[in-house]
Amino acid sequence: MAGASDKARFYLEQSVPELQGYLRKKIFTKDEVSSIVKKRSGFEHKLNARGSSASDYARYAEYEMNLESLRRTRAKRLGAKSKSNSYTGQRRIFFILDRATRKFHGDTALWLQYLTYARKQKSNKRVSRIISDMLRLHPVSHDLWIYAANYTMDERADVTEARAYMQRGLRFCRDSKQLWDAYLRLEMIYISKLSVQRQILGLDPPFPKKDEISINEQIAEEMVALPLTTSEESKQDCATADFADQVSPLDNIESTLVIAGAIPIAVFDAAMKEFPGDASFGARLFDSATTFHGLPCTGMILHHIVETLMTATPTNSASLCCFVAEPIQGINPGSLEFPGALMKMLDRLEISKCKLESLQKPIEQTRAHGIVARHAINRIIAYFEAPGLDADIRAVLSAMLQTSWRYCLSSIESEAEGTSGETVALLQMLTARGFKDLVRPGVASALQRWPEEPRLLALEATCNGG
């Protein structure tokens, strides 16, 4: 069996033609080549001896990457063109990283370094092989499944394979909330790209308004029924005939279940089956869906999420936060629908207070409503910075802010335990935006709970000095 020195010598001898080419083309001097040989010899002896670590391989690969970058720069300056030398450096780096991942297959950092370099070199076949090997050895790492799906979607635009990675990952990591969240985002990104493509081709009319679409039925007390095709009607049509025969790529955007949001809704439903009663996780998926507010199906998806959460956990603060925030999601502050959405949000804030009255302990009622009110304040504050905001709208926002702030004060005064972190952060945000009249009573109430909190004392000085 060959020793460490013999293996190191064998690998070094294979680089002799490469180094001779550097000297012949004057890319490196004789002294520089000697330095390269010495450096490589040190790395190879360390890697082939006992006790080598993953960091040794990582440093060796990084050295070769820097050397290859320097070689390319000098070759370009000298006008020395040679594909063989270029590919030799690339092959050497790939060989080092391949050896590293074979020996330390449990080190995900090495796998990601290998993947990053292969993607940078646009070696797509090798990237696919690396991903396959990596997932085979790390099937319970949700981060790697997400990486594989995102790469497939971003670089290869293959949603079918990306979706397959997500579904395979969920077989191994069904309890991974991060993977479910990433799956929902993947489907939303696909809908976004598909919608943009269809709009560019002129196949679809302008996006419908947010309140014109409903996932199940239109609520009479909140919406006016409009003569539009809903997703339920689309499902009934598809049930009577073959969907593939009825729907063509040139049909209207609302006629396809994909763009209508059926897949994200199915992902959400499957996720909630894995985590029944987990309103915080449902709120996390709600927040993920709100980032795609420009899509025509976002309103349906958000309404379905809120409807599901309010049915399963109607008195949970996370469910009520989504319930209160839903009406204003994706609506432009300068649109005609915005005032009505604000009033609906205020009504839901009052409804949430009524629902929380069913809780047995008064302190739980106040604490939960304080959480909902803080969430509402964060949503309202963002609209004050909208350019060209109408004065009447600003007055309504101020009234809603005061109402929400009263609930927060009650929560601060009634809590017997807890930390000052969230309260101080909220007070600091309001102070930074000039709402000192609201902050003063809040600081006074908070100081009764935390009299020695330095940040509250600083806020009190700022308010009194202003």
Which keywords apply here?
466 residues; mainly alpha; 22 helices; 0% strand
How large is the radius of gyration? Answer: 30 Å
Strand segment count: 0
Which spans have pLDDT < 50 for at least 5 consecutive residues? 208-250
Encode the helix/strand succession as letters: HHHHHHHHHHHHHHHHHHHHHH
Sheet having the most strands: none
Structural class: mainly alpha
Beta-strand content = under 5%
Number of helices: 22
The general outline is elongated
End-to-end C-alpha gap: 81 Å
Mean pLDDT reading = 80
DSSP helix fraction: over 70%
Secondary structure: elements and pairs:
Layout: H1 4-13, H2 16-24, H3 30-48, H4 54-78, H5 83-103, H6 108-120, H7 124-137, H8 142-155, H9 159-172, H10 177-200, H11 231-240, H12 243-246, H13 262-274, H14 279-290, H15 298-312, H16 317-325, H17 338-356, H18 362-384, H19 391-414, H20 421-432, H21 436-449, H22 454-465
Helix pairs in contact: 1-3, 4-5, 5-6, 6-7, 8-9, 8-10, 9-10, 10-13, 10-14, 14-15, 14-16, 15-16, 16-17, 16-18, 17-18, 17-19, 18-19, 19-21, 20-21, 20-22, 21-22
